[in-house]
Amino acid sequence: MQSRTPVPRASGRPRSAEADAAILAATREALVELGWSKLTLGDVATRAGVAKTTLYRRWAGKNELVVDAVAELFDELRLPDRGSLAADIEGVVLQLAAILDRPEAKSGLMAAIAESTRDDALRERIRDSIVDRQKRLVLEGRARAQRRGELAPEPDPAESARTVDLIFDVVAGAVVHRTLVSGRPADEDWVRAFTALLLGGLRADGEGPPQDDGPAGGAPLTASS
Amino acid sequence: MQSRTPVPRASGRPRSAEADAAILAATREALVELGWSKLTLGDVATRAGVAKTTLYRRWAGKNELVVDAVAELFDELRLPDRGSLAADIEGVVLQLAAILDRPEAKSGLMAAIAESTRDDALRERIRDSIVDRQKRLVLEGRARAQRRGELAPEPDPAESARTVDLIFDVVAGAVVHRTLVSGRPADEDWVRAFTALLLGGLRADGEGPPQDDGPAGGAPLTASS
DNA sequence: GCCATTACGCTACGACTCGTAGCGAAACCA
DNA sequence: TGGTTTCGCTACGAGTCGTAGCGTAATGGC
C-alpha cells in the first residue's frame, strides 16, 4: 500500500515494518497537532524515532506520506446490514462523516487532493488507496437493495458503473462539503435529510419518502438503528 | 472584499487599486504555473510588479491572498432562466464545473479549504467571499421552481434554510468531488445524470437520454459482491 | 564463518523561502 | 508647506528542504 518496493529485494537488511507503522502514526499525530502546512518531515522523523533520511528513502515526499497515513483511516468503513436501503445509507454516511471529522483526515486529505491537481501520480495514488477502495460499499449497498426489491436491477454493466461513480461523487462530495467547506457537522439530522433527498429527490421534498419503509423526514425521530 | 481596511483612512497616500488587481491577477497566474505549494509571495510580487513588502502590508499571508484571488472567479456565476428547474440546475452546474475545471481554482481553492480546517478566520473568509455568496443561486432557483409549480412552497423559513444548505452541499460537493477527486470532467452527460438524480432520487431510476458510453473504467461489476 | 547487499542513524551542507525591519521617496490632504 | 500614509528597495535571522557521505546493523548466499 504505502511506499513502493521498486524491486523485490533478494538479499540485504530488510526494511523495518515497525518503522513504517511508527512513521505513519507519527504523521497522523503531526497532522493533528500542526496541520498540513506546518508539518515537516524532520518533525515526523523525530516523532517516529527514525532518521530523516529513512523517511526520504521510503517516500518521495510529504504528499505521498500523508496520503498513506490518511488512507489507513478509511479502512474502518463497513456496511452493516440494517434492513433497508435508507438505513444502510445513513449508517455508512455517518461512519464516513466521523472519519472526515477527525482533524488528521480533514487537513491531510484536502491538502493532498489539492496537490493532486498538479501531480497525476499522486491523484492515482489517492484514488487507488482511498477512493476506489470504498466503492465496494456502494456496490454492495446497491446489490442488497436490489435483492430487497428497493431498487430496480441494472442489467447494463456500463450504465451501472456510471451510476456507481455518480452516487459515490454525490455521497462523498456532499459529506466532504458539509464537513469541510460549510464547517458544520454531518450529524444524524443532516444525514437523515440527505438520505431522504438522495432516495426521493427534490420533488419528494424531504417530508417522507415515497415508500414507507424507512426513517426519513423532518419529524423528530428517535429509533433508527 | 479582499484585504482588510483596518480603518477608514483620512489622509495620506491612497493605496493603489491597480496594485490590488495586479497582485490578484499575478496570484492566479502563479497558481496556474506553479500550483499552491510552489507559489511564493516573492514570486507573486515580482509578477505583479510590486515590492514583496507591499504584499505583506495588504494580506496576512498566502492563504488570504489566494482566497481573494480565487473568489473573483466565482463572481461570474449566473442563473439564467431556462424554463424548467432541471434546465436551470443543469445550466448553473455546468458553469460551476467550468470554473472548478480551471487550474487556478482547483489548486487554490482546495488548498485554502485544507488550511481552513485549522484556521477559523480563514474558513469564515472562504464562506463569506465564496460559498455563501452563491447560495443566492439556490434561493432563486427554488423560488422560480415554486412559482412554476415544480416544487411545493416551503412556509417554514428555518426548514427552508436547512434545505438550501443541504442542496448547496450536495450540488457543490458533487461537482467538486467529480472534478477534483475523481478527476473526471463534469460534462453534459454527467450533469444530466446528476440533475436527474437530484430531482428524482435513486428510486426514480434516473433514466435520461440514451447515450453511448465513453467513460473509462468499465469495472467488471455485475450486481454481485 | 565470511562476504555481498541493503537498510539504518547521524551529521553536515547549500539552496531556498519566510516574514520583518529600516530607509528614503512618492502621493495625497489640510 | 507640513503631516500622513504608502511604496520600493535592501538586508537580515530563522527555518525548512532534500541530499551526500560515512560508519554501523541486519539479512541471505557461499
Protein chains sharing the most extensive interface = A-B, 74 and 69 residues
What does the overall shape of chain A look like?
elongated
According to CATH, the homologous superfamily of the largest domain in chain A is Tetracycline Repressor, domain 2
- SS-based class of chain A: mainly alpha
Provide the number of structural domains of chain A.
Answer: 2
Question: What is the gyration radius of chain A calculated from CA atoms?
Answer: 20 Å
CATH top level class name of the largest domain in chain A: Mainly Alpha
What is the CATH fold-level name of the largest domain in chain A?
Answer: Tetracycline Repressor, domain 2
The total of beta strands of chain A comes to 0
How much β-strand is present in the residues of chain A? Answer: under 5%
Topology of this structure?
The structure is a homodimer of 225-residue chains.
Chain A: H1 17-38, H2 41-48, H3 52-58, H4 62-71, H5 85-100, H6 103-116, H7 120-148, H8 157-181, H9 188-200
Helix pairs in contact in A: 1-2, 1-4, 1-6, 4-6, 4-7, 5-7, 5-8, 5-9, 6-7
Chain A binds a DNA duplex (30 and 30 nucleotides) through residues 9-16, 19, 40-42, 50-54, 56-57, 61.
Compact description:
With 225 residues, chain A is an all-alpha fold. Chain A has helices spanning 17-38, 41-48, 52-58, 62-71, 85-100, 103-116, 120-148, 157-181, 188-200. The first copy, chain A, folds into 2 domains: 17-58, Orthogonal Bundle (Arc Repressor Mutant, subunit A), CATH 1.10.10; 71-204, Orthogonal Bundle (Tetracycline Repressor, domain 2), CATH 1.10.357.
